[in-house]
Design goal:
This protein has 138 residues and is of the alpha+beta class. It is built from four helices and seven strands. The model has no long low-confidence stretch (mean pLDDT 92).
């Protein structure tokens, strides 16, 4: 069950952030801010997976996508990502270079590596461009 994330989901999202992204997790304040300015959905009640994204015209920036380790590989992340990608024809995200499982997951959705970030958290920049339907001249 996918539903919009609410303030009531902040604690569950923050807990998953610590589990999944311990080096750079969003805290409760950041999550609340993202819920107020972006698009966020969760799967389950209580939340077992979440996505946080921002949309600017025809581009969606997937800020976070996380699934509690006990519920991974069950389609929750795929459902949330599909919902998010429906917001705009182009999408971008970053993924840690040492996370081949996530990289392969995003490739299944048409994402390609287009750049990299070095430093404390080396990451790939990935983007997806959804082909636009062709318009017939007839």
């Amino acid at each position: 069950m996918i539903r919009p994330a609410t303030i009531d989901d902040i604690d569950a999202i923050a807990f998953m952030e610590i589990l999944l992204f311990p080096e750079n997790c969003f805290n409760e304040r950041t999550i609340a801010n993202e819920l107020s300015i972006g698009h966020a959905w969760v799967s389950g009640n209580p939340a077992i997976a979440y996505v946080i994204a921002r949309v600017d015209h025809d581009l969606v920036d997937v800020m976070r996508l996380g699934v509690h380790p006990d519920f991974q590989s069950r389609g929750h992340g795929a459902e949330l990502l599909a919902k998010t990608l429906a917001l705009a024809p182009m999408a971008m995200l970053t993924v840690r270079k040492d996370n081949p499982r996530a990289i392969q997951f995003y490739r299944r959705f048409g994402f390609e590596i287009v750049g990299h970030f070095s430093g404390i958290d080396p990451a790939w920049a990935m983007r997806r461009v959804q082909p636009q339907p062709t318009v017939s001249a007839t």
